[in-house]
Each structure stands twice: as C-alpha cells, then as structure tokens.
Design brief:
alpha/beta; 7-stranded parallel beta sheet; single chain; 2 domains; UDP-galactose 4-epimerase, domain 1; two-stranded parallel sheet
Amino acid sequence: MKILVTGAAGFIGSHLAESLVSQGHEVFGVDNFNTYYDQGLKRLNAKHIVANGVQLIEADLNDTLDDVLPENVEYVFHFAAQPGIAAHVTLEQYVQNNIFATQNLLNWVSKFSAEAFFVNIATSSIYGTEATLPEDAEVKPISFYGSTKLTAEQLVLGMARVRQLKACSMRLYSVYGPRERPEKLYTKLIKAIFENEPFPLFEGSEKHSRSFTYVGDIVKGLESVIGKEDICNGEIFNIGSDKEYTTQQGIELIEKIIGKKAVIERTPPRPGDQLRTTAVIDKARKLLGYEPATEFEEGLRKQVEWYKKYFL
C-alpha cells in the first residue's frame, strides 16, 4: 500500500512511518523541519526512518504541494501540526499550521489522491479542562492548540460528511516514549536528572492526572484503522491508555529508574493546561480491537534507555 505520513520526522509520526515500512508498505514522509524545537532530534529521527526505508520529503504543508507529494496514495496519516501549549507560540502560528495547512493538504488529496483514506491525528486537548469523555460528548477546548486542532478535525470530517473523501480522526492521549519532544515532560525530566539541572515544574501540575500512553500502543491503535475503512469513515476515536497516573507518580518512576532524585524548580501555572485526562476507549475497543498493553514503568524504562543511548 502507498502511504503518506505528514510530520514524519516528529515523535509519533516517525514511529508510525517505520512500523508501516516494516509491514511492507511503500511509505512517503513529509516534514518541514521547523524551529519549534531543536532540529537535531528531528534530524536524528529522519536519519533512522530513511535508513529503514521511508522516502522522506522536506516540505511545508502551507506551500504549493502539487509537484511535491506523490500522487495516488492510498492512505494519509496527518500528524503535521503546531504542537503543544506554549506561551511563546502565537494564535497566528496555530491557525497557520493547524488549520490552513490541513486545508491545503485536503485540497491536495482531493485533487491528486481522491481515493485515499485520510486519518487525522487529533488530541485530547479538544475536550478541555478534563478529558474524561466519550467521543460524542460536548467539547470545550481551553487553549489555542485545542481549539485549532478541533477546527482541523472538523475540516477533515466535513469533507467525509459530503463524501469528498473517506476519513476518520484519532484523539491521542499524553503520548510518551523514545523520541519524545525535548520540551515534553519525560524527556525534559530525564535530561535534567542526568545533567544535574533543575527540573521546571508548573505549580500544581504534580497533582494533574494523565492517560500516559506508550508510543508503541498509539501506533498500534492508528494502524488498526487499516482494513476497516467502511467502519471508520466519518468517525472519531479516542486512542490512549485508560489507566490514570499523576504527574508526581511519573516523576517518582523516572527517579526510581535512573536511581537519582530530580531537583524540582517551581514555575507559575501554565494557562490552558488540562487538570485530568482519562481515555474512554470503549469505542476503539469495540470497532478496532484496540487494547493498549504497555505498562507505564515499562514504557518509561524504554524512554530512559533511548535517552542514554543517543544523548549521554
């Protein structure tokens, strides 16, 4: 199968692209290698996926795509976005990279790959302060990120509703594991401990609870759509662990794995942060056979080993 993965040099996209290649698919990746975070990690990811057979294209989804992307792909997994909840990222950047870029990609798909199945990668941030709801619940995003990702999701599903393409949207929950972005919780914590630096922790966030989900379990959930296109068309799925841990529990597990305490530096609370997320995955279990299997500590150990291998 001919598959396009956007954001293929990123955290989750790189894992999915590699997995799809290992199953015999012809995989094309696209990434713009922007400066949101240190490009060194993305270049490292890119090196790995290319070595494993992914055909990588460096391009921005906001640009003209007609002569850039391969025609007649059968699947699109759309990860590329302005990620995270960051005060230094403007609303304009979220709108440009989450809404306009998605619409530009949809225009390209309808023109050059109209038969493709489009899998939109969404986020639990769409739900709002507490993401503990099924897919048909009212959503109340509280951040630029959540709001623009909701808009992107609706652009995709809108085209499915009028039968311009077949598509679904996957709302992911608190993904962690090897290749996690450097500004994310566990990569930042692991780095701080190994480099004897203070770890900045948002005031009160140690009590926040999350459906921390290992990246390998996320990949399996995304791949479970393949072959179930008629069932999934027009649908939204929560993909994540239904086990809940506090940030403090996660910190303590990393300290246990490394064998060293973190030096905590309290910082002001982050606007738009969620208080609680718990993935309600009944729908994904029923329709996709989805079942996350990686225990939290096991996944964190894999992330620590990845960090030690490439950064120490």
